[in-house]
């Protein structure tokens, strides 16, 4: 496994892009857990961070990023530029996290 460069900018500092390999993406869909919903409901009353949801979204973001990286590696990319994350609700209680960017070759 090579050391793929991941950036949210249009270029990699100090490197020249020699070619674009195309869009790469990774996604995951996560659903809420009834136990988390109960804790979230209680925190909604008293206020504060809903740590169960924060953890769930953080894990989903890492999984989506991992899948994007695997797709870039399968193209033999040196880097992924313009990396972005987006989320959308796919049904009540479930959300999709999508990581995407452009796989490139570097000089």
UniProtKB/TrEMBL annotation:
Pfam families with a match to the protein in the record: YbjQ_1
Residues passing through the membrane, by range: none
Family statement drawn from the similarity comment of this UniProt entry: Belongs to the UPF0145 family.
The protein, known as: UPF0145 protein SAMN05421834_12215
Organism: Halanaerobium kushneri
């Amino acid at each position: 496994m090579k050391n793929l460069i991941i950036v949210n900018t249009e270029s990699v500092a100090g490197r020249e892009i020699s070619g674009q390999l195309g869009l790469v993406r990774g996604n995951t869909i996560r659903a809420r857990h009834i136990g988390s919903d109960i804790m979230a409901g209680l925190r909604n009353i008293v206020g504060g961070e809903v740590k169960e949801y924060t953890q769930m979204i953080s894990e989903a973001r890492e999984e989506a990023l991992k899948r994007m990286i695997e797709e870039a590696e399968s193209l033999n990319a040196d880097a992924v530029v313009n990396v972005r994350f987006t989320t959308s609700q796919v049904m009540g209680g479930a959300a999709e996290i999508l990581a995407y960017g452009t796989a490139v070759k570097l000089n």
